[in-house]
Task: inverse folding
């Protein structure tokens, strides 16, 4: 960790976020706790881009009145195993926790729960919700559309988001399998880092504003588009990443009615959030393992598969083969013990909010020197 | 179409496959019809590698007694919305048609059906089963593990198959969205074509037997491994393709008990099919659109999304943006009208079978000249 970071205890940081949302913004206490839990999960798992760094972005929305801070979340359709939820423009974390709880409840009742959600907002890390199912020894699914920033294969316009999807599957003695992936080759944050470090990016990551393959990390900012997982052509399978991004938009958006990409002006929402609420859609799933085979046998099979992958021979130049989620569990253990490294610029923003809303921030004291 | 191909009427070809399986191999009539329907769907959709070309491969298995030609397919576990099926080592298409019908039945009853299948075999194109749901205006899911041939990210051993997944979602006036993708960058067939044409393959497709990045199309044959969608490193997202392949193996294999990758000798099954039956696993899903929002509204949203993607501006050098499944629907229309082009080597094999099993093959007459 460089000297540009402050190590912060995760429980202090959790309390801070709860205070900011409960005392500062006036959310219900239980909603503030959800926001803190989702953001802390990201920071603990090493997904810093989706942790407390985001507070500034959310603050902007709340200040402008674009989020409903006390949403009336409603179930609009329901069958034994499925439902659709209207998030009433609430904060994505609050709406999504409610939705995933309903999903799990349905899975308990009939084996499977599938719930689409509309009229919501950015929900943080996808894996938070899929992993909720793990506590019940269920398989969990979570996905969301986000503002269009990526071009379809052979296209040049921003038509789809990074549209992440997550699957979480329990194991017995191994850590669970937790896949949480954007359907673009990389997320926008990688380009920002490269731009700051004045590095080129590899081909297959971004197009310039005219739709040409680019290695300039500023191309996205200058009106370009992200490239789908698999690259900008069919040759290495770019149409597969594009297909997955479309799938996520269909399940999160078409089912719930919160779809991006129909209207070109959707893209303007992100560029100018003051235009209107984001109207993001999500899709959640949960299913009981016992609905297929004895739980013990399935978990043994998961252990065997994960172990054989981790024990397989690495390619030249690499020390080991990882499975999805493994690195994040390692980071979580380390950060729970040693603290979460916050960039000084983030620390300063947190202090600003604390002073503005008169909440305790003693644990950030060192950085004020 | 080159002169090395014969154009064959699809109904003639269907009758031929039915006769081969019913008269030739002694399958039940309805099972022979299923095999013909799945293979013809592949040939009509332009997925030639999974069409009647495969008859030779299947024949080898049937001759060696490795498939059960009259399987007793059993439901071993069942809840309102889920089930597991033991395929009794039947042909993958026969087992899978049964499984997807059960999946759809469950979705009709409670909104969702999810069915895992073990003790099965190669099932043809994944999209055949997901598309069965379209006829009911449902969303369909299909995936399968296959013999290990691809290395995990930063790995060098063959640990996972090309593990395809398919999602089919209906639209109103547009053709349905049909995603059907291997989770490796390319399928093995692409390397065979490049080897025949003495072309190098791009980086990001195959590793040599020592785990090094290779551009030699023969590397796979020489003991190498396919690369996951996104490439051999984390840089362009190879861990995402790897994560998806693992997911498919978990849902198809760990749930059903037919998992590849636990035991290194699993890999030998493909190299030496005489060792034992393949014990492949599948996973199927179906869900009612009405379980989320009014069908009409969802289909309108799908139309809007698909149309906006197809109408979006192409990148320089390209004429149009396609959506998943669109090209296959175009090929199908064309081939239903003009016939299916069969390579002369395939035609000769079909004639051999016909003579051996004394079935009608007049429609292949031209090629005998």
Result:
């Amino acid at each position: 960790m460089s000297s540009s970071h402050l190590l912060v205890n995760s429980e202090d940081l959790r309390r801070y976020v709860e205070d900011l949302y409960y005392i500062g913004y006036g959310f219900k206490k239980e909603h503030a706790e959800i926001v803190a839990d989702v953001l802390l999960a990201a920071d603990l798992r090493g997904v810093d881009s989706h942790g407390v760094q985001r507070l500034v972005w959310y603050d902007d929305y709340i200040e402008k009145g674009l989020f409903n801070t006390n949403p009336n979340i409603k179930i609009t359709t329901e069958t034994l195993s499925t439902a659709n939820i209207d998030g009433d423009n609430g904060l994505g974390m609050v709406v999504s926790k409610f939705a995933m709880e309903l999903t799990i409840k349905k899975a308990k009742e009939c084996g499977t729960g599938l719930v689409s959600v509309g009229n919501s907002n950015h929900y943080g890390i996808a894996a938070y919700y899929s992993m909720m199912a793990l506590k019940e020894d269920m398989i969990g699914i979570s996905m969301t559309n986000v503002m269009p920033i990526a071009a379809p294969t052979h296209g040049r316009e921003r038509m789809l988001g990074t549209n992440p999807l997550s699957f979480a599957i329990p194991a017995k003695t191994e850590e669970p399998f937790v896949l949480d992936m954007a359907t673009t080759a990389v997320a926008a944050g990688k380009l920002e880092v490269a731009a700051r470090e004045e590095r080129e990016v590899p081909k297959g990551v971004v197009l310039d504003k005219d739709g040409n393959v680019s290695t300039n990390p500023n191309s996205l900012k200058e009106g370009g588009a992200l490239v789908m997982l698999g690259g900008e052509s069919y040759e290495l399978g770019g149409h597969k990443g594009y297909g997955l991004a479309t799938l996520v938009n269909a399940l999160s958006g078409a089912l719930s009615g919160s779809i991006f990409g129909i209207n070109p002006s959707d893209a303007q929402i992100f560029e100018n959030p003051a235009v209107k609420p984001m109207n993001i859609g999500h899709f959640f799933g949960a299913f009981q393992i016992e609905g297929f085979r004895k739980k013990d046998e399935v978990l043994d099979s998961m252990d065997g598969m994960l172990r054989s992958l981790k024990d397989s021979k690495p390619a030249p130049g690499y020390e080991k083969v990882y499975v999805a989620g493994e690195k994040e569990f390692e980071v979580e253990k380390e950060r729970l013990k040693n603290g979460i490294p916050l960039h000084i610029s983030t620390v300063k923003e947190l202090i600003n909010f604390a002073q503005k809303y008169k909440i305790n921030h003693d644990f950030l004291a060192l950085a004020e020197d």
Q: What stands out?
A: The mean pLDDT of chain B is 93. Residues 92-110 of chain B form the longest helix (19 residues).
